[in-house]
Amino acid sequence: MIEIIVNGKSMAWTSEKNVYTLIIDTLNYPAESSRFVVALNGELLPAEQWPSTRVNNGDIIDVLGAITGG
Amino acid sequence: MADSDVFTIAREEISSRLWLGSSMYPSPDIMVSAFASAQPGFVTMSLRRQTAGDLANNDYHERVNQWLGASQSRLLPNTAGCQSAKEAIQLAILARELFKTSWIKLEVIGDEYSLQPNVFELVSAARELSAQGFYVLPYCTDDLVVCESLLHAGCPAVMPWGAPIGTGKGIINPYQLRTLRARLPDTTIIVDAGIGRPSQAMQAMEMGADGVLLNTAVAKAANPVTMAGAFAAAVDAGRAAFHAGFMTERDMASPSTPVAGLPFWHTAMREGQHHD
Predict the structure, then answer these.
(1) Which CATH superfamily is domain A2-65 in?
(2) Regarding predicted confidence, which is higher, A15 or B79?
(3) Any idea what the CATH number is for the domain that residue B150 is in?
(4) CB atoms B48 and A35 under 8 Å
(5) For the complex shown, is ipTM > 0.90?
(6) Closest CA to A6 of A28, A39, A35
(7) CB contact under 8 A, A69 and B61
């Protein structure tokens, strides 16, 4: 069982995933989009590294997009 | 303003001395219309966790991008909400990747009630981000020593508050802003936060600020588009006035119209009458 936290919420599954599969296939974020970025355990994970980065038990993943701000 | 009054930061030309936030507008259309009215040098945005659904419905981001593509405005991401240097550095790095810009409005909040910056964490984050090639524009207090430390850390400008964020109280410590201008004559100073009225923005510019950054005063106006234009005019007028040089204030009245040649010179006084 792999348990992780995505955007503050717990997720769990049994098979192995990489970050690309998690973000695009499981969570349905748009592929090839420049409108969001991914942080793995607080650090930027560039898009080109998503396919080669395995999601490990206990990982904390954040998906961030633009919002209005002052 | 004269064409020769070119505004540059970090050797980059900035198209306007009025910068606007993108938050709290009644609609994306009104936000963009306010931008068109103000022609801001920078437009600020931020970044937060978003679901796939959030991204699909992010009209404001789409409209800001369209505006940036059709204008001279630049995008200035912020690190709003961060409470430590570590958080701010991480968010700035993510912002650079998302927005494809090295400009960052660095915010590290130290007090939730006043939203006063934590200047110790701010200087630490500014040093690290400057070393990583960011153009760090720090939201800071109006403390001279803090501003000097931020400049030494590599910031190309400082952005002292006029008043706490969102209060609209204007320049609550004009003495300190005058001190900053006098002691840091070659430093780019942007008054960030607390400006509520065009007259307050004009006051900041008359005092020698190089620009102002505001959001609530436009977004929460009854008519944001008209207010954006009013702020643009005030900033231009304040800048022109600062360059023009002010008269010296005095306590005694002095007639504007020459008295020589007045045909009834002091007749009434000689006759013992009084003026009210």
Answers:
(1) Beta-grasp domain (3.10.20.30)
(2) B79
(3) 3.20.20.70
(4) no
(5) yes
(6) A39
(7) no
